[in-house]
Amino acid sequence: MKKLKICLVFPPVVFSRESPKQIMPPLGISYLAAFLRPEFDVSLLDAAIEGYGIERRLDNGFLVYGLPEDEICQRVLALNADIVGISCLFSSQFPVVAKICEKIKSLSPRTVTIVGGTHPTFMTEECLSGPGIDFIVRGEGEVTLRETARRLSAGRSCEDVPGLSWREGKVIRTGPDQRLIDNLDELPFPARDLLPLSRYFRVNLPMGLICRKTPSINIITSRGCAYDCAFCSSCRFWGNRFRPRSPENVLAEMEQLKELGVRELKFFDDNLTLDRSRAEKIFQGMIARKLNFSWNTPNGIDVRTLDRGLIRLMKKSGCYEVTLAVESGDSNVLRTIVNKSFDLAEVERKAQLIKQEGLGTYGFFIIGFPGETHDQIEKTLKYIYRLRLDRISLFIANPLPGTRLREICLERGYINPGEADSLDFFQARFSTQEFDQRWLESRRRSCYWSYNLQLLLRNPFKFFSNYSIFIKRPFLLARVVVDKLFLPLLRNGYK
Q1: What is the second-level CATH architecture of the domain 5-174?
Q2: Which pLDDT band holds residue 113 (cuts at 50, 70, 90)?
Q3: DSSP codes of every residue in 30-96
Q4: What is the separation of C-alpha 421 from the centre of its chain, rounded to a whole number of angstroms?
Q5: Is 237 helix (H, G, I), strand (E, B) or coil?
Q6: Domain extent listing, the chain
Q7: With bands split at pLDDT 50, 70 and 90, how would you rate the model's confidence at 58?
Q8: Cα gap 291→314, rounded to integer Å
Q9: Topology of the domain covering 206-492
Q10: pLDDT value at residue 494
Protein backbone atom coordinates (compact mmCIF):
# COMPACT_ATOMS: atom_id res chain seq x y z
CA MET A 1 0.00 0.00 0.00
CA LYS A 2 1.24 3.48 -0.87
CA LYS A 3 2.30 5.50 2.15
CA LEU A 4 0.15 8.53 2.90
CA LYS A 5 2.10 11.75 2.29
CA ILE A 6 2.05 14.29 5.12
CA CYS A 7 3.60 17.74 4.99
CA LEU A 8 3.90 19.56 8.32
CA VAL A 9 4.28 23.33 8.11
CA PHE A 10 5.47 25.95 10.55
CA PRO A 11 3.89 29.17 9.22
CA PRO A 12 5.33 32.66 8.83
CA VAL A 13 5.82 34.52 12.10
CA VAL A 14 3.65 37.54 12.87
CA PHE A 15 5.27 39.87 15.36
CA SER A 16 5.13 43.32 16.91
CA ARG A 17 7.75 45.84 15.81
CA GLU A 18 8.87 46.06 19.43
CA SER A 19 9.64 42.35 19.48
CA PRO A 20 13.00 41.58 17.79
CA LYS A 21 13.05 38.68 15.34
CA GLN A 22 14.07 35.41 16.97
CA ILE A 23 14.10 31.99 15.36
CA MET A 24 14.94 28.42 16.32
CA PRO A 25 13.95 25.01 14.88
CA PRO A 26 10.22 24.38 15.56
CA LEU A 27 10.14 21.53 18.08
CA GLY A 28 6.39 20.89 17.71
CA ILE A 29 6.34 19.78 14.07
CA SER A 30 9.74 18.10 14.54
CA TYR A 31 8.33 15.84 17.26
CA LEU A 32 5.23 15.13 15.18
CA ALA A 33 7.33 14.19 12.14
CA ALA A 34 9.50 11.82 14.16
CA PHE A 35 6.39 10.15 15.61
CA LEU A 36 4.64 9.80 12.24
CA ARG A 37 7.38 8.78 9.85
CA PRO A 38 7.57 5.07 10.76
CA GLU A 39 4.14 4.78 9.10
CA PHE A 40 3.88 7.73 6.71
CA ASP A 41 5.93 9.71 4.19
CA VAL A 42 6.57 12.90 6.17
CA SER A 43 8.20 16.19 5.17
CA LEU A 44 8.68 19.47 7.03
CA LEU A 45 8.46 23.04 5.79
CA ASP A 46 9.48 25.83 8.14
CA ALA A 47 8.19 28.83 6.22
CA ALA A 48 9.76 31.18 8.79
CA ILE A 49 13.37 30.16 8.21
CA GLU A 50 12.90 29.51 4.49
CA GLY A 51 11.69 33.09 4.05
CA TYR A 52 13.49 34.69 6.96
CA GLY A 53 14.53 37.74 4.95
CA ILE A 54 11.07 38.33 3.47
CA GLU A 55 9.09 40.84 5.56
CA ARG A 56 5.81 42.59 4.97
CA ARG A 57 3.41 44.72 6.99
CA LEU A 58 -0.11 43.57 7.87
CA ASP A 59 -3.18 45.80 8.05
CA ASN A 60 -3.15 45.70 11.87
CA GLY A 61 0.35 47.20 12.02
CA PHE A 62 2.10 43.93 12.78
CA LEU A 63 4.98 42.62 10.70
CA VAL A 64 5.25 39.12 9.26
CA TYR A 65 8.33 37.30 8.03
CA GLY A 66 8.48 34.05 6.11
CA LEU A 67 7.51 32.63 2.75
CA PRO A 68 4.44 34.24 1.12
CA GLU A 69 1.26 32.15 1.28
CA ASP A 70 1.31 31.43 -2.45
CA GLU A 71 4.82 30.00 -2.33
CA ILE A 72 3.95 27.86 0.70
CA CYS A 73 1.01 26.42 -1.22
CA GLN A 74 3.16 25.77 -4.30
CA ARG A 75 5.76 23.91 -2.25
CA VAL A 76 3.16 21.84 -0.44
CA LEU A 77 1.29 20.91 -3.61
CA ALA A 78 4.56 20.08 -5.39
CA LEU A 79 5.04 17.37 -2.77
CA ASN A 80 1.62 15.95 -3.67
CA ALA A 81 0.79 15.79 0.04
CA ASP A 82 -2.39 13.99 1.10
CA ILE A 83 -2.43 15.81 4.44
CA VAL A 84 -1.08 19.25 5.28
CA GLY A 85 -0.69 19.90 8.99
CA ILE A 86 -0.01 23.49 10.05
CA SER A 87 1.17 24.60 13.46
CA CYS A 88 -0.44 27.71 14.94
CA LEU A 89 1.19 28.60 18.24
CA PHE A 90 0.10 32.21 18.45
CA SER A 91 -3.18 34.00 17.84
CA SER A 92 -1.39 36.53 15.66
CA GLN A 93 -0.45 33.72 13.24
CA PHE A 94 -3.96 32.41 12.70
CA PRO A 95 -5.10 34.79 9.91
CA VAL A 96 -2.02 33.74 7.91
CA VAL A 97 -2.65 30.06 8.67
CA ALA A 98 -6.29 30.38 7.62
CA LYS A 99 -5.28 31.95 4.29
CA ILE A 100 -2.80 29.15 3.60
CA CYS A 101 -5.43 26.49 4.27
CA GLU A 102 -8.02 28.26 2.14
CA LYS A 103 -5.61 28.54 -0.82
CA ILE A 104 -4.55 24.90 -0.53
CA LYS A 105 -8.17 23.74 -0.58
CA SER A 106 -8.99 25.96 -3.55
CA LEU A 107 -6.09 24.54 -5.55
CA SER A 108 -6.37 20.94 -4.34
CA PRO A 109 -9.74 20.11 -2.74
CA ARG A 110 -8.67 16.52 -2.03
CA THR A 111 -5.83 17.66 0.25
CA VAL A 112 -6.81 17.38 3.91
CA THR A 113 -5.88 20.42 6.03
CA ILE A 114 -5.27 20.01 9.74
CA VAL A 115 -4.32 22.79 12.15
CA GLY A 116 -2.94 22.35 15.66
CA GLY A 117 -1.30 24.40 18.38
CA THR A 118 -2.25 26.67 21.23
CA HIS A 119 -4.57 29.09 19.42
CA PRO A 120 -6.81 26.53 17.65
CA THR A 121 -6.92 24.38 20.80
CA PHE A 122 -8.56 27.18 22.77
CA MET A 123 -10.38 28.95 19.92
CA THR A 124 -11.66 25.85 18.13
CA GLU A 125 -15.10 27.10 17.10
CA GLU A 126 -13.77 30.43 15.85
CA CYS A 127 -11.05 28.69 13.81
CA LEU A 128 -13.52 26.29 12.21
CA SER A 129 -16.02 29.02 11.38
CA GLY A 130 -14.33 29.89 8.08
CA PRO A 131 -13.47 27.79 5.01
CA GLY A 132 -10.26 25.90 4.42
CA ILE A 133 -9.65 23.96 7.64
CA ASP A 134 -10.85 20.35 7.72
CA PHE A 135 -9.70 19.32 11.21
CA ILE A 136 -8.22 20.80 14.37
CA VAL A 137 -5.99 18.81 16.69
CA ARG A 138 -6.47 19.99 20.27
CA GLY A 139 -3.58 19.89 22.71
CA GLU A 140 -0.78 17.32 22.56
CA GLY A 141 -0.80 16.23 18.95
CA GLU A 142 1.23 13.08 18.32
CA VAL A 143 -1.35 10.38 19.03
CA THR A 144 -4.30 12.35 17.64
CA LEU A 145 -2.57 13.18 14.36
CA ARG A 146 -1.34 9.62 13.87
CA GLU A 147 -4.78 8.14 14.47
CA THR A 148 -6.38 10.70 12.15
CA ALA A 149 -3.88 9.84 9.41
CA ARG A 150 -4.50 6.13 9.93
CA ARG A 151 -8.26 6.62 9.57
CA LEU A 152 -7.91 8.78 6.47
CA SER A 153 -5.48 6.32 4.90
CA ALA A 154 -7.94 3.48 5.47
CA GLY A 155 -10.96 5.53 4.35
CA ARG A 156 -12.55 5.30 7.78
CA SER A 157 -14.47 7.89 9.78
CA CYS A 158 -12.55 10.14 12.18
CA GLU A 159 -15.64 10.76 14.29
CA ASP A 160 -14.39 9.31 17.58
CA VAL A 161 -10.70 10.25 17.37
CA PRO A 162 -9.70 11.73 20.74
CA GLY A 163 -8.45 15.29 20.57
CA LEU A 164 -9.98 16.00 17.14
CA SER A 165 -12.50 18.67 16.13
CA TRP A 166 -14.12 19.34 12.74
CA ARG A 167 -17.11 21.02 11.10
CA GLU A 168 -20.12 19.27 9.62
CA GLY A 169 -22.18 21.89 7.82
CA LYS A 170 -22.77 24.60 10.39
CA VAL A 171 -22.16 22.30 13.35
CA ILE A 172 -18.78 22.01 15.11
CA ARG A 173 -18.09 18.41 16.10
CA THR A 174 -15.63 17.55 18.86
CA GLY A 175 -14.19 14.20 19.82
CA PRO A 176 -13.26 13.27 23.40
CA ASP A 177 -10.13 14.76 24.92
CA GLN A 178 -6.86 13.04 24.13
CA ARG A 179 -5.15 11.09 26.88
CA LEU A 180 -1.71 12.59 27.48
CA ILE A 181 1.41 10.52 26.85
CA ASP A 182 2.61 9.34 30.27
CA ASN A 183 6.05 8.07 29.28
CA LEU A 184 7.74 10.70 27.12
CA ASP A 185 10.73 8.40 26.65
CA GLU A 186 8.53 6.54 24.17
CA LEU A 187 8.69 9.52 21.83
CA PRO A 188 11.50 9.55 19.26
CA PHE A 189 13.81 12.56 19.27
CA PRO A 190 12.67 15.50 17.10
CA ALA A 191 13.22 14.95 13.37
CA ARG A 192 15.71 17.79 13.07
CA ASP A 193 17.23 16.06 10.05
CA LEU A 194 14.16 17.17 8.06
CA LEU A 195 14.97 20.84 8.75
CA PRO A 196 17.71 23.06 7.24
CA LEU A 197 19.71 23.33 10.48
CA SER A 198 22.56 25.25 8.87
CA ARG A 199 20.18 28.15 8.18
CA TYR A 200 19.21 28.48 11.86
CA PHE A 201 22.87 28.30 12.81
CA ARG A 202 23.75 30.98 10.29
CA VAL A 203 21.00 33.39 11.41
CA ASN A 204 21.82 32.70 15.09
CA LEU A 205 19.04 34.70 16.76
CA PRO A 206 17.83 32.34 19.49
CA MET A 207 15.07 32.92 22.01
CA GLY A 208 16.36 35.41 24.56
CA LEU A 209 18.81 36.86 22.03
CA ILE A 210 22.01 35.91 23.80
CA CYS A 211 24.40 33.13 22.94
CA ARG A 212 27.82 32.24 24.33
CA LYS A 213 28.69 29.58 21.77
CA THR A 214 27.48 28.76 18.30
CA PRO A 215 25.75 26.88 16.92
CA SER A 216 22.97 26.72 19.51
CA ILE A 217 19.74 24.75 19.50
CA ASN A 218 16.58 24.37 21.57
CA ILE A 219 15.72 21.30 23.61
CA ILE A 220 12.81 20.41 25.88
CA THR A 221 13.08 17.71 28.54
CA SER A 222 9.55 17.72 29.98
CA ARG A 223 5.94 18.63 29.32
CA GLY A 224 3.17 19.89 31.55
CA CYS A 225 3.08 22.24 34.50
CA ALA A 226 1.72 21.60 37.98
CA TYR A 227 1.09 25.31 38.50
CA ASP A 228 -1.78 27.39 37.14
CA CYS A 229 -0.53 30.93 36.53
CA ALA A 230 -3.33 33.20 35.32
CA PHE A 231 -1.41 34.58 32.32
CA CYS A 232 -0.19 31.23 30.96
CA SER A 233 -2.00 28.53 28.94
CA SER A 234 0.79 25.94 29.12
CA CYS A 235 -0.72 24.01 32.03
CA ARG A 236 -4.02 23.68 30.16
CA PHE A 237 -2.44 22.78 26.83
CA TRP A 238 0.13 20.24 28.05
CA GLY A 239 -1.76 19.13 31.16
CA ASN A 240 -1.70 20.28 34.75
CA ARG A 241 0.99 17.82 35.81
CA PHE A 242 4.71 17.53 35.30
CA ARG A 243 5.72 14.86 32.77
CA PRO A 244 9.50 14.51 32.64
CA ARG A 245 11.73 12.58 30.31
CA SER A 246 14.28 10.39 32.07
CA PRO A 247 17.82 11.72 32.52
CA GLU A 248 19.14 8.87 30.33
CA ASN A 249 16.78 9.81 27.51
CA VAL A 250 17.70 13.50 27.73
CA LEU A 251 21.43 12.76 27.75
CA ALA A 252 21.07 10.47 24.73
CA GLU A 253 19.50 13.35 22.78
CA MET A 254 22.32 15.63 23.91
CA GLU A 255 24.84 13.12 22.57
CA GLN A 256 23.03 13.25 19.23
CA LEU A 257 23.11 17.06 19.23
CA LYS A 258 26.82 16.98 20.02
CA GLU A 259 27.38 14.86 16.91
CA LEU A 260 25.54 17.52 14.89
CA GLY A 261 28.09 20.08 16.03
CA VAL A 262 25.81 21.89 18.51
CA ARG A 263 27.74 23.79 21.20
CA GLU A 264 24.98 25.54 23.15
CA LEU A 265 21.57 24.42 24.44
CA LYS A 266 18.46 26.49 25.11
CA PHE A 267 16.21 24.65 27.59
CA PHE A 268 12.58 25.42 26.69
CA ASP A 269 11.13 23.62 29.73
CA ASP A 270 8.61 25.29 32.00
CA ASN A 271 9.94 23.28 34.95
CA LEU A 272 13.50 22.15 34.27
CA THR A 273 14.47 21.86 37.95
CA LEU A 274 11.11 20.93 39.48
CA ASP A 275 12.33 17.37 40.16
CA ARG A 276 15.67 18.08 41.82
CA SER A 277 16.96 14.51 41.65
CA ARG A 278 16.25 14.30 37.92
CA ALA A 279 17.82 17.71 37.26
CA GLU A 280 20.97 16.73 39.17
CA LYS A 281 21.31 13.52 37.16
CA ILE A 282 21.02 15.46 33.89
CA PHE A 283 23.64 18.03 34.93
CA GLN A 284 25.96 15.37 36.39
CA GLY A 285 25.61 13.37 33.18
CA MET A 286 26.54 16.41 31.09
CA ILE A 287 29.71 16.77 33.18
CA ALA A 288 30.60 13.07 33.23
CA ARG A 289 30.17 12.71 29.45
CA LYS A 290 32.19 15.88 28.85
CA LEU A 291 29.53 17.30 26.55
CA ASN A 292 30.92 20.80 27.08
CA PHE A 293 27.71 22.61 26.18
CA SER A 294 27.06 26.13 27.33
CA TRP A 295 23.39 26.58 28.23
CA ASN A 296 20.72 28.84 29.65
CA THR A 297 16.99 28.81 30.38
CA PRO A 298 15.29 31.44 28.19
CA ASN A 299 11.82 30.16 29.12
CA GLY A 300 12.32 30.74 32.85
CA ILE A 301 12.92 28.60 35.90
CA ASP A 302 11.20 28.27 39.29
CA VAL A 303 13.38 30.20 41.74
CA ARG A 304 12.03 28.12 44.65
CA THR A 305 13.80 25.01 43.35
CA LEU A 306 17.27 26.59 43.47
CA ASP A 307 19.92 26.46 46.19
CA ARG A 308 23.67 26.93 46.24
CA GLY A 309 24.46 23.27 45.60
CA LEU A 310 22.20 23.02 42.55
CA ILE A 311 23.36 26.36 41.17
CA ARG A 312 26.99 25.26 41.41
CA LEU A 313 26.18 22.00 39.64
CA MET A 314 24.36 23.92 36.91
CA LYS A 315 27.36 26.19 36.40
CA LYS A 316 29.77 23.25 36.28
CA SER A 317 27.63 21.60 33.59
CA GLY A 318 27.78 24.73 31.41
CA CYS A 319 25.01 27.07 32.60
CA TYR A 320 25.88 30.75 32.23
CA GLU A 321 22.51 32.45 32.84
CA VAL A 322 19.34 31.71 34.81
CA THR A 323 16.00 33.25 33.86
CA LEU A 324 13.76 34.05 36.82
CA ALA A 325 10.04 34.25 36.07
CA VAL A 326 9.17 36.74 38.83
CA GLU A 327 6.15 38.42 37.15
CA SER A 328 5.23 40.93 39.91
CA GLY A 329 6.89 42.77 42.75
CA ASP A 330 3.67 42.90 44.77
CA SER A 331 2.84 39.84 46.85
CA ASN A 332 -0.91 40.50 46.74
CA VAL A 333 -0.89 40.61 42.92
CA LEU A 334 1.09 37.38 42.83
CA ARG A 335 -1.27 35.63 45.21
CA THR A 336 -4.71 36.94 44.19
CA ILE A 337 -4.31 37.72 40.48
CA VAL A 338 -1.33 35.82 39.06
CA ASN A 339 -1.97 32.73 41.24
CA LYS A 340 1.74 32.35 41.93
CA SER A 341 2.80 31.86 45.51
CA PHE A 342 6.36 32.60 46.46
CA ASP A 343 8.18 34.92 48.83
CA LEU A 344 9.60 37.98 47.10
CA ALA A 345 12.31 38.22 49.76
CA GLU A 346 13.33 34.68 48.78
CA VAL A 347 13.57 35.77 45.15
CA GLU A 348 16.01 38.51 46.19
CA ARG A 349 18.11 36.03 48.18
CA LYS A 350 18.20 33.52 45.33
CA ALA A 351 19.06 36.20 42.78
CA GLN A 352 22.01 37.26 44.92
CA LEU A 353 23.04 33.63 45.33
CA ILE A 354 23.02 33.11 41.55
CA LYS A 355 25.18 36.20 41.10
CA GLN A 356 27.59 35.10 43.83
CA GLU A 357 28.14 31.85 41.95
CA GLY A 358 29.05 33.78 38.81
CA LEU A 359 25.94 33.19 36.71
CA GLY A 360 23.99 35.83 34.82
CA THR A 361 20.46 36.75 35.85
CA TYR A 362 17.53 37.53 33.57
CA GLY A 363 14.08 38.42 34.90
CA PHE A 364 10.53 38.35 33.51
CA PHE A 365 8.02 40.89 34.81
CA ILE A 366 4.43 41.73 33.84
CA ILE A 367 2.34 44.80 34.61
CA GLY A 368 -1.23 45.73 33.75
CA PHE A 369 -3.19 42.80 35.17
CA PRO A 370 -6.95 43.32 35.56
CA GLY A 371 -7.48 44.38 39.17
CA GLU A 372 -3.91 45.67 39.58
CA THR A 373 -3.63 49.21 40.95
CA HIS A 374 -1.31 52.09 40.10
CA ASP A 375 0.52 51.59 43.38
CA GLN A 376 0.99 47.87 42.77
CA ILE A 377 2.40 48.53 39.30
CA GLU A 378 4.82 51.09 40.72
CA LYS A 379 5.78 48.58 43.42
CA THR A 380 6.75 46.08 40.71
CA LEU A 381 8.86 48.68 38.91
CA LYS A 382 10.69 49.58 42.15
CA TYR A 383 11.24 45.90 42.87
CA ILE A 384 12.88 45.47 39.46
CA TYR A 385 15.46 48.12 40.36
CA ARG A 386 16.01 46.55 43.79
CA LEU A 387 16.76 43.11 42.34
CA ARG A 388 19.54 44.51 40.09
CA LEU A 389 19.35 41.67 37.58
CA ASP A 390 21.66 41.60 34.57
CA ARG A 391 18.79 41.65 32.07
CA ILE A 392 15.04 42.11 32.23
CA SER A 393 12.00 41.76 30.02
CA LEU A 394 9.06 43.88 31.10
CA PHE A 395 5.74 42.94 29.51
CA ILE A 396 2.15 44.15 29.56
CA ALA A 397 -0.44 41.53 30.53
CA ASN A 398 -2.04 39.96 27.46
CA PRO A 399 -5.29 37.95 27.78
CA LEU A 400 -4.19 34.97 25.68
CA PRO A 401 -6.65 32.21 24.73
CA GLY A 402 -6.69 29.39 27.24
CA THR A 403 -5.71 31.55 30.21
CA ARG A 404 -7.56 32.55 33.36
CA LEU A 405 -6.52 36.12 32.55
CA ARG A 406 -8.61 35.99 29.39
CA GLU A 407 -11.60 34.65 31.33
CA ILE A 408 -11.33 37.55 33.80
CA CYS A 409 -11.11 40.11 30.99
CA LEU A 410 -14.17 38.59 29.28
CA GLU A 411 -16.13 38.57 32.56
CA ARG A 412 -15.36 42.25 33.13
CA GLY A 413 -16.01 43.30 29.54
CA TYR A 414 -12.43 44.42 28.84
CA ILE A 415 -12.26 42.41 25.60
CA ASN A 416 -14.78 40.90 23.20
CA PRO A 417 -15.34 37.10 23.03
CA GLY A 418 -13.92 36.73 19.50
CA GLU A 419 -10.97 39.01 20.13
CA ALA A 420 -7.70 37.09 20.00
CA ASP A 421 -5.80 38.35 17.03
CA SER A 422 -2.52 39.66 18.41
CA LEU A 423 0.55 38.65 20.30
CA ASP A 424 1.88 41.92 21.60
CA PHE A 425 3.27 42.18 25.09
CA PHE A 426 4.29 45.82 24.65
CA GLN A 427 0.93 47.42 23.85
CA ALA A 428 -1.97 47.33 26.30
CA ARG A 429 -5.07 45.47 25.15
CA PHE A 430 -7.49 47.04 27.61
CA SER A 431 -8.00 49.82 30.16
CA THR A 432 -9.43 49.38 33.65
CA GLN A 433 -10.75 51.65 36.40
CA GLU A 434 -7.17 51.77 37.74
CA PHE A 435 -5.14 52.54 34.62
CA ASP A 436 -5.51 53.41 30.96
CA GLN A 437 -3.61 51.88 28.08
CA ARG A 438 -1.49 54.90 27.20
CA TRP A 439 -0.25 55.40 30.77
CA LEU A 440 0.61 51.70 31.07
CA GLU A 441 2.59 51.65 27.85
CA SER A 442 4.46 54.80 28.86
CA ARG A 443 5.43 53.40 32.28
CA ARG A 444 6.61 50.13 30.78
CA ARG A 445 8.69 51.88 28.16
CA SER A 446 10.31 54.40 30.52
CA CYS A 447 11.19 51.73 33.10
CA TYR A 448 12.63 49.37 30.50
CA TRP A 449 14.90 51.95 28.90
CA SER A 450 16.01 53.65 32.10
CA TYR A 451 16.85 50.26 33.64
CA ASN A 452 18.93 49.27 30.61
CA LEU A 453 20.72 52.63 30.66
CA GLN A 454 21.63 52.03 34.30
CA LEU A 455 22.95 48.57 33.38
CA LEU A 456 25.11 50.11 30.70
CA LEU A 457 26.54 52.72 33.07
CA ARG A 458 26.98 50.27 35.95
CA ASN A 459 28.83 47.57 34.04
CA PRO A 460 29.41 48.41 30.36
CA PHE A 461 31.58 45.33 29.76
CA LYS A 462 28.86 42.96 30.98
CA PHE A 463 26.17 44.89 29.11
CA PHE A 464 27.97 44.63 25.77
CA SER A 465 28.92 41.02 26.49
CA ASN A 466 25.26 40.12 27.01
CA TYR A 467 24.16 41.85 23.83
CA SER A 468 27.10 40.89 21.63
CA ILE A 469 24.63 39.56 19.03
CA PHE A 470 23.52 43.15 18.43
CA ILE A 471 26.99 44.69 18.62
CA LYS A 472 28.15 42.44 15.80
CA ARG A 473 25.11 43.48 13.73
CA PRO A 474 24.84 47.30 13.73
CA PHE A 475 21.84 47.35 11.38
CA LEU A 476 19.94 44.97 13.68
CA LEU A 477 20.87 47.10 16.70
CA ALA A 478 19.68 50.27 14.96
CA ARG A 479 16.41 48.61 14.03
CA VAL A 480 15.78 47.45 17.62
CA VAL A 481 16.38 50.95 19.00
CA VAL A 482 14.11 52.55 16.39
CA ASP A 483 11.33 49.96 16.76
CA LYS A 484 11.42 49.68 20.55
CA LEU A 485 12.07 53.31 21.46
CA PHE A 486 11.57 55.97 18.82
CA LEU A 487 8.53 54.63 16.98
CA PRO A 488 6.49 54.10 20.20
CA LEU A 489 7.39 57.64 21.25
CA LEU A 490 6.23 59.03 17.91
CA ARG A 491 3.06 56.94 18.04
CA ASN A 492 1.94 57.75 21.56
CA GLY A 493 4.07 60.61 22.78
CA TYR A 494 6.03 60.45 26.01
CA LYS A 495 4.47 61.06 29.40
Answers
A1: 3-Layer(aba) Sandwich (3.40)
A2: very high
A3: HHHHHHHTTTSEEEEEEHHHHTTT-EEE-TTS-EEESS-HHHHHHHHHHTT-SEEEEE--SGGGHHH
A4: 16
A5: helix
A6: 5-174, 206-492
A7: confident
A8: 13
A9: pyruvate-formate lyase- activating enzyme (3.80.30)
A10: 43
